[in-house]
Amino acid sequence: MTDHSNDSRGSRPTRDARDSRDSRGPRTPRDARDSRDSRGPRPPRDARDARDSRGRDDAPQRRPLRETVCEIDRDILRLLLRRHNILTRMRGDKSRLDSAEEKMLRESWEGAVARISRDARLSGHFFSLMQEVEFLPRPLGERLVEAAEGSENGDGAAPAAQEGPDKRIAFNLAPPAKPVRLRMQAPLACRATRAWLMLAAATGQPTRLNPCLMNDPIVDCVKMLIQVGASLTREDDGVTARPAVALAAPDKVLYVGDSAWNFYLLLGHYLGRPSRAKFMGESSLKLADLSAVRHFLPIMGARLVHVVPKSDGLPARLECSGIIPDSVVMPADTPAELAEGILLAAPGYEHSLMMDLTNHPAQKTILARTLPILRAAGAEVSVEGGVVRIHPTKLEIPAQPELPMEPELALFLLALPLALGGESTLAGQWPQWPNAEAGWKLLQSLGLDLQQQKGKDGNEIKATSAAPIKSFSLTALPADLPADWAPLAVGLAACSALRGGQPTPLPALPLGTDPYEVESFLNALGLEQDNEGRLCKNEQSGVKAGWNAPSPVWAMAFALAACAKQHQKLGNPGVMTGLYPAFWVLYNSLPEPQPRRAAAEAAPAAPARRRIITASVAVPPELKDEDDY
To answer: For residues 285 and 269, what is the distance between their CA atoms, to the nearest angstrom?
Structure first.
């Protein structure tokens, strides 16, 4: 029998109950009842809210909704981790999931999303992130506990399970508070390195680039060119291109890594030839918006088709007719890297190409990055304002091209005296690029003494600061400072706020800077912005478990801020090693970093084994009949 004692749909009152209610007599008229004034004032709203429906004052308080949302977020993370583990089991020994299975998962996801949302980011980008996201390994302590629970002894004790160290410790940034003394070869330009490799492979001429940065983008570029047919050899500190047949445009599936520059380099090469290919890349290129490129390529006689429905990134198929127009106008919304890739490949086209960059916002950057390389290779180039004309030319690749500094990394090394005091000396040539000049002006405006001089091994740049920065008084940043380099300014302002103790004004950041990344960075350092945009200390904030830098430049800014406030925790130090493999070795050896590790001592040679030759002959015994089998 079902109990309806607490059911609002229970039976109606009986006649006896109604009679007992009526026996109480007639109700008092409304006018004769006590007024609100005679009963006293209403209780405070908070007091009423604290009571339950029966008027008790000891009712439990309602949990804030923000705590419920936080709990839901933790549940989502647990489900994502479970999904990741199941996908790992599905992949098995393979590096990627089968295309048929991934297609089925995507179609199921898109069908489920279509019933609740019309946001393309939820149906496309969110799924790609779930497929590519990485998780930390499980703590060793938990694994030992589970192993002990599965094989515990009779008394249930598992002493070894309590001693497992946790492998999820964040990277502790604690450089000594001493003046820096840095003298080293500057990291060399990553894009210029790949441009020379592309030209050497396209012409089949030998060249050697040593030393060079040898980071993930360069390694991916070498692998990409080898897939196309280049003859390249990768070494510890450089790359060697051997004489080979000039690069063709084979119909292949090409992996370009996680750098859009690799994709645009190869795209420019394919545009000048009747060809087709399929390009694949990592997560950033899968989530990239290549719609402007797709709309522009028909002008160049090509077509780009995205493989994944409702996606604007890779993977994508390229079909080229090889018919290049005499002149082309680059729209303002096309990436600057696309124009650079086409210009670098233009000497290998059948006829001359005129490119109009007058209306492109990155006109100066495009010309500054490509024209010095093309002229050093002997290309026939003419420039009139923002119009560039390149004629078909048989290039002559230098045996060892000269590479400028990588300004994105060199600016951090030059800014170390602002964070710690002292001096930094980098050997190399400073690039004459607009963004590099803007970074130079930024450091000079903050009081850093920058000088270009001649050293024993060529050009050098020396940066000197008598004391660490305590006042960040810039009202505006240089006009050509790109949004990707805004973390450098934010990191130096954070150094001033952490060390000076006074509110530090933060100037307006370049257009395109993500405000959520800035807020997360400041919160991890125990800083916040007041109503006037000044940086103030907020000791209650700060990410104790470790802050995950969204990009390598943010990781460098975090490392600069750690010079003013030690023991900052960085949760993803690998984001830096992908761009600059030697970064943490250099940073951990402050204040006098060693650019190279000391060579390991050669292991002592093992003694030669003596070989004794005798005249004796070993004769095996004969087998008996019962032993013969």
So the answer is: 19
